[in-house]
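Weekly structure sync, notes
Attendees: PL (lead), two postdocs, one rotation student
Agenda item 3: pending single-chain targets
PL asked that the sequence for the first pending target be pasted directly into the notes so everyone works from the same version. It is reproduced below exactly as submitted, 405 residues in total.
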Amino acid sequence: MSNIKPTTGSERIQVLDALRGFALFGILFANLYSFIGYNTLSPEEIIVLPILDRAVLFFIDWFVEGKFYGIFSILFGVGFALQAQRFTDAAVNFRAFWYRRMLVLCCIGLLHMYLVWNGDILTLYSLLGMLLPLFLYRSDRTLVRWIAVLLFIPLLIHLITYLTPDAPFWGSLRRVSTGLKAEWGFGELSLLAMRTSDSALEVCAVNVLYAIPRAMSYLLSGRYFQVLGLFLIGILIARHWLPKIQKNEVSVPNSAIWIGVIGLITSFAYAVIKGMIGTPYALTEIGLLQALVYHVGSTSLALGIAMLFLAMWASGRAQSVFRNLAILGRMALTNYIFQNVTAILLFFGYGLALMRKVPFASLPFFAFGILTVQWLFSRAWLKRFKQGPLEYVWRRLSYRPAGES
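Predicted structure, written out during the meeting:
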């Protein structure tokens, strides 16, 4: 692979890096409400939180939840298509590179999941990314059909679980986790008690224990299929939009506006329902409606936000904002991990143990504070180096020279 190398700063597409940087902000918002302690509260406790706390949670449910990992997923598909084109142009074996790249990302994700936080998304991306070469040379029509099927499957799964709530299969991994928890001597401890323990071993144990049923929760929520569908949307965007972006011939179709409006309305409905029942997932009639508006809203609003972002970039206004966001986006992997390491040091027991000790209304202040530190670090780092530290490791192992073992 000596005749192809990672892209340099001058070869990168700034608007994509800027969109990654913007998505990092949304991802941080979505993750912080878990770190502050949302998952340790019961639905009954959630619906009686103070009004300011509920207002912040409502904002996240409306504008953030599902939207920014959706943007990241679309960008992942775009990145795949761009790299495939570079390798094709250079007549180099792309599949071998891509599978190696996904294997390295999977290893980073597993370390992050077990040592830092079980809410990792990198492992899922890497495993689903292994499937993308199957779609590389499919026609647009075939990709659209696959996207439609993949985005419909989560609703079908929710309907099946609604009709079969007592089927042993749905709770199989949770029972494994509960059994291990008791076997390891943590049976009587709550999630809050383990997260706020001053023992790093105990906090790592809860990462392992809660990572086990997470695989099933992804199936129940249809996350596998939704993310893969978003990857394929990214491939289509790379085919039809990126050539225009690179030539500064960008126009945002009116349909993008309507997609965004649909996303706003359905995401608002999701936030209202979640605020009423205190949970993002329910096997009830209203839970079926909640699933519908969530999946429609998260995908359409993610696309709407991305199109609005692109339109603002194409207008030529606020270029300094895009440049600063691109600084964050060029180090997206490093900054994603850094966000979560910072959060566990703030909220977990072996750090400052702030979980359940600060109101949800304080979440924006933590988010802006962490992002400011990240931006300062990223700017200083990129003045000396071409890429972030984790990006360097990932690319160094992915772009292994030919003949190297």
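Discussion points:
- The chain has a mean pLDDT of 90.
- The first helix runs from residue 14 to 35.
Action: rotation student to compare against the earlier draft before next sync.
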